[in-house]
């Protein structure tokens, strides 16, 4: 796999040649030569989400990179889970697909109970935290940072929920979350401009502001985004669209203007 | 390329102070990773029994798993023995639970505190693999080295070197102890990047458990 990736012409992730699954797999008591996840291969970049008046809004781009190659450009990294939640993932895309399979099983069993109750975002978040933590304990992590958002009727009326869990099981609940680069670029904007009970339009504007910064500054982001929302009515994942970008800065037009020297 | 690291330090500091008939447990609410703040409102304190509270700092995934495991074991104890676990009993259970994972530790630095069976304040302090000691007060976490010297100086507790051994609880009143805890957190917040945002203080005494929050510097 490593040799093939390198032969594509500087594409794939920089896996050292002849890499040997060290430590973890051999430490398995009587386990034998089982492979353990060492590096992610096809990865998605940031996911951002915030609570607003009617529920939760979540957004990310539709790209999946293979190291520095932009391999897939129409990947859906936000999916609906049950009636009350949406989940977004950054990191290894195949691990996200595995997580969706786990969630399918979970929601199916939940439906088959036929007891009038359905799993809400808090329960999904808790379940995924346990899954991620347990995989980390086996030194075989699901290489993702997951964002779970949703609305469900609780004792105090419609309760909005937004949480995050990362690949080693660190998890928390907040009014706004972001994964990967979003932590550094989007969260400062969200902390300054988020407020309780934003309208949908305000929330979209704020999300687009963050997505634009990520587009300009995150090398692995692409200009094709999907926004999803979840309210008491259900989840909606909007079709992908692009943001308007501006490159007409004078310094870009004549970059060598102030330079001294031969180039 | 870096190998997968199963641990991360989510930072924060926990403190507990035992008095004659009360116990003060406090922890900041900042959850960090690297140089980022993930949440300014994340509690590190778990109530395990009505007179027993656990405050932990370190790797949050392990901390939550540990607190969950202890809460489950406490419930089983209640069902088997028809009473809630006492603080000293929980102290031994926590030590055993930590040592059980001696060769893949819970990255958690714990302070267990509450009232013992006589109603006196007790504080138990741990390392990551379960060695523990009953003391009059303790601080654990990223700001502990900044706080312990101040607590040593200000709590006026009897020295642990005295013979015959004296109870290590502080002679201070409950409100003085709470004020001191607030001061000590304010000081640590100035110099420890992982400590700050908000301070959660839990006071346990004969009338029950009372929770208070005060703001700390957010930078």
TrEMBL record, chain A:
The name this protein goes by in its record: Proteasome subunit beta
Record-level GO cellular component terms: cytoplasm; nucleus; proteasome core complex, beta-subunit complex
Major subcellular site: cytoplasm
Protein family: Belongs to the peptidase T1B family.
Biased composition (Low complexity): 16-28
Keyword set, alphabetical order: Cytoplasm, Nucleus, Proteasome
Organism listed in the record: Miscanthus lutarioriparius
Cross-referenced SUPFAM superfamilies: N-terminal nucleophile aminohydrolases (Ntn hydrolases)
Region (Disordered): 7-34
Complex formation: The 26S proteasome consists of a 20S proteasome core and two 19S regulatory subunits. The 20S proteasome core is composed of 28 subunits that are arranged in four stacked rings, resulting in a barrel-shaped structure. The two end rings are each formed by seven alpha subunits, and the two central rings are each formed by seven beta subunits. The catalytic chamber with the active sites is on the inside of the barrel.
Biological role stated in the UniProt entry: Non-catalytic component of the proteasome.
TrEMBL record, chain B:
Keyword Metal-binding: no
Protein name: Proteasome subunit beta
Subunit structure: Component of the proteasome complex.
BP-aspect Gene Ontology terms: proteolysis involved in protein catabolic process
Family indicated by similarity: Belongs to the peptidase T1B family.
Subcellular location, record wording: Cytoplasm; Nucleus
Function field: Non-catalytic component of the proteasome, a multicatalytic proteinase complex which is characterized by its ability to cleave peptides with Arg, Phe, Tyr, Leu, and Glu adjacent to the leaving group at neutral or slightly basic pH. The proteasome has an ATP-dependent proteolytic activity. Component of the proteasome, a multicatalytic proteinase complex which is characterized by its ability to cleave peptides with Arg, Phe, Tyr, Leu, and Glu adjacent to the leaving group at neutral or slightly basic pH. The proteasome has an ATP-dependent proteolytic activity.
GO CC list: cytoplasm; nucleus; proteasome core complex
Keywords: Cytoplasm, Nucleus, Proteasome
């Amino acid at each position: 796999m490593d040799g093939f990736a390198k032969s594509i012409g500087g594409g794939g992730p920089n896996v050292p040649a002849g890499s040997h699954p060290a430590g973890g797999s051999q430490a398995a008591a009587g386990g034998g030569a089982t492979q353990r996840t060492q590096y992610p291969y096809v990865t998605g970049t940031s996911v951002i989400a915030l609570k607003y008046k009617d529920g939760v809004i979540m957004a990310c781009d539709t790209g999946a990179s293979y190291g520095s190659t932009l391999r897939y450009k129409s990947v859906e990294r936000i999916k609906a889970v049950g009636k009350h939640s949406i989940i977004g993932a950054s990191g290894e895309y195949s691990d996200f697909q595995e997580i969706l399979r786990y969630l399918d099983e979970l929601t199916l069993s939940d439906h088959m109970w036929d007891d009038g109750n359905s799993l809400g975002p808090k329960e999904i978040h808790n379940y995924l935290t346990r899954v991620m933590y347990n995989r980390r304990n086996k030194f075989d992590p699901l290489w993702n940072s997951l964002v779970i958002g949703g609305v469900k009727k609780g004792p105090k009326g419609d309760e909005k929920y937004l949480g995050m869990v990362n690949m080693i099981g660190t998890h928390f609940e907040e009014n706004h979350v972001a994964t990967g680069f979003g932590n550094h670029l989007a969260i400062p904007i969200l902390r300054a401009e988020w407020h309780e009970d934003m309208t949908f339009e305000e929330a979209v504007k704020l999300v687009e502001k963050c997505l634009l910064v990520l587009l300009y500054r995150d090398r692995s982001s692409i200009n094709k985004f999907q926004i999803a929302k979840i309210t008491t009515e259900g989840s909606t994942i909007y079709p992908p669209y692009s943001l308007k970008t501006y490159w007409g800065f004078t310094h870009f037009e004549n970059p060598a203007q102030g330079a001294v020297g031969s180039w | 390329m870096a190998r997968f690291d199963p641990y991360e330090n989510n930072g924060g500091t926990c403190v507990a102070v035992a008095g004659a008939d009360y116990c003060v447990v406090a922890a900041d609410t900042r959850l960090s990773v690297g140089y980022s703040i993930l949440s300014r409102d994340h509690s590190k304190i778990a109530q395990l029994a009505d007179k027993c509270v656990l405050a932990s700092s370190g790797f949050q995934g392990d901390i939550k798993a540990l607190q969950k495991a202890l809460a489950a074991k406490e419930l089983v104890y209640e069902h088997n023995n028809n009473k809630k676990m006492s603080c000293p009993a929980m102290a031994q259970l926590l030590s055993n639970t930590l040592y059980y994972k001696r060769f893949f530790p819970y990255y958690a630095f714990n302070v267990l505190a509450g009232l013992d069976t006589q109603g006196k304040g007790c504080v138990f302090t741990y390392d990551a693999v379960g060695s523990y000691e009953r003391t009059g007060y303790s601080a654990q976490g990223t700001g502990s080295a900044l706080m312990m010297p101040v607590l040593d100086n200000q709590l006026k507790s009897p020295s642990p070197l005295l013979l015959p051994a004296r109870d290590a609880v502080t002679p201070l009143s409950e409100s003085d102890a709470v004020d001191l805890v607030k001061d000590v957190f304010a000081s640590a917040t100035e110099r420890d990047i992982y400590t700050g945002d908000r301070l959660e203080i839990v006071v346990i005494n004969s009338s029950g458990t009372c929770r208070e929050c005060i703001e700390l510097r957010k930078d």
